[in-house]
Design brief:
By secondary structure, this protein is mostly helical. The protein is 79% helix and 0% strand.
C-alpha cells in the first residue's frame, strides 16, 4: 500500500512538472508572437524590446533552473515575477484596454493547482493589489506611453483573450488529472486506515464476541429490527456502547456494516411471515412493514440484494413447492 501511495505521489509530481513545462512553452510562444506583433504590425519599439526580453528571460531561465529547483520554488518565483512583469504592460495599455488584467487571472488559478487554500487567498489579494496600484499610478503619473489606435488594441486584445483561454484550459486540464490522482490516493489511505481498524488483537476479539452476543440477544428477544427507524445510534444508546465498537463487532462476524446485519434479520422475518401466512388473507405490504421496511421499493431492493431473486419470484417458488407437497 505504501509503495502504491509513493507511486501516486510521484505521478502527481510528474503531472505538476509537465504542467510547468507545457505552460512555459506556451507562454514563450505567446510572448514571442506578441513581440513580433509590436515589431512588424504595431510599431512600438519599447514594447517590442520588453516582450522579447521577457521571452528570452522566461525561456533561458527555465532551461537553466528546471532540474535544480523544487516545484514550489519555481511556481512561487514565477507567479511573483510574472505579476511584476505584467505591471508595465498593464500601465502601458491602461487608457486603451483593461484586457491586460487577464494575464493576472492564471495566478490564483495556479495557486489553486499547486498550493493550499491559504495561498489561493494570498495570491488573489496580490492580484487585486496589483490592479489597485496600477490604477493609483496611472492616475497620478504620466509615462508618455505609445498611443495605439482602436484597431491596434483590437488585434492585441483578440490575441490576448485567445492565448489566455489556452493557458487557463491547460491549467484546468492538468488540475483535473492531478485531482483524480489525489482522490485515488485519499481512497487508498482511507482503505488502509479501515483495514488497520478492522485488525483486532486477542483482547479485542473477546470483547467483540461478548458484545456481538449482546447485540444478537437484543435482536432476537426484543425484535428491534421491526422498528422502521431503527439504526446503529439507537442500538448504541440502548446498550450504552460507542457505535464504533458495535461496528467492529459486527464486521468481525463477517457483516459489511450494521445496515446489512439489520436487513438480514428483517428479510428472515419476512420469509418467516410468508411461510406462516396465506397471501390471500394478508397483504405483502403488511408483511414487509411488519418486518421493519418503510416502503416496497426499499423492501424489493434489499430482498433481491440478499436473496438474489425478487420477492415475487420467491413467492412463486414457495407456492409451487406448496402445491407439489399437496
Amino acid at each position: 500500500m505504501m509503495l502504491t501511495q509513493n507511486t501516486k505521489l510521484q505521478k502527481i509530481e510528474r503531472y505538476k512538472r509537465d504542467l510547468i513545462h507545457y505552460y512555459t512553452i506556451l507562454m514563450s510562444f505567446v510572448l514571442f508572437v506578441f513581440a513580433l506583433i509590436f515589431t512588424f504590425f504595431i510599431y512600438d519599439k519599447t514594447m517590442s524590446w520588453y516582450l522579447f526580453g521577457g521571452w528570452f528571460f522566461l525561456s533561458y531561465s527555465y532551461f537553466i533552473v528546471r532540474k535544480s529547483y523544487s516545484i514550489n520554488v519555481l511556481v512561487h518565483t514565477y507567479m511573483i515575477l510574472a505579476a511584476f512583469y505584467n505591471f508595465f504592460i498593464m500601465l502601458a495599455f491602461w487608457d486603451n484596454s483593461v484586457a491586460s488584467f487577464v494575464w493576472l487571472l492564471p495566478i490564483p488559478l495556479g495557486a489553486y493547482v499547486f498550493f493550499s487554500r491559504k495561498y489561493v487567498v494570498l495570491y488573489s489579494l496580490f492580484v487585486i493589489l496589483n490592479i489597485v496600484m496600477g490604477y493609483i499610478i496611472s492616475k497620478n503619473f504620466d509615462f508618455h506611453f505609445e498611443i495605439h489606435s482602436k484597431e491596434d488594441v483590437k488585434i492585441t486584445d483578440t490575441f490576448l483573450v485567445i492565448s489566455n483561454f489556452a493557458v487557463i484550459s491547460l491549467i484546468i486540464y492538468f488540475k483535473d488529472k492531478i485531482r483524480k490522482e489525489e482522490i485515488y490516493q485519499e481512497i487508498e489511505i482511507k482503505q488502509e486506515l479501515e483495514a488497520k481498524t478492522n485488525t483486532l488483537d486477542e483482547k479485542e476479539i473477546l470483547l467483540a464476541e461478548e458484545l456481538f452476543e449482546k447485540i444478537e440477544a437484543i435482536m432476537v428477544n426484543k425484535q428491534s429490527y421491526k422498528d422502521v427507524n431503527y439504526n446503529i445510534s439507537k442500538l448504541s444508546a440502548s446498550m450504552d456502547v460507542n457505535s464504533s465498537y458495535i461496528s467492529k463487532a459486527i464486521r468481525y462476524h463477517g457483516y459489511p456494516n450494521f445496515n446489512n446485519y439489520l436487513n438480514l434479520y428483517r428479510i428472515n422475518y419476512v420469509k418467516k411471515l410468508l411461510d406462516e401466512n396465506d397471501l390471500e388473507k394478508v397483504t405483502l405490504m403488511y408483511i414487509y412493514t411488519e418486518a421493519g421496511f418503510s416502503n416496497q421499493s426499499t423492501f424489493n431492493r434489499v430482498f433481491k440484494q440478499i436473496e438474489k431473486i425478487t420477492p415475487s419470484e420467491y413467492i412463486n417458488i414457495m407456492q409451487s413447492r406448496d402445491s407439489l407437497s399437496k
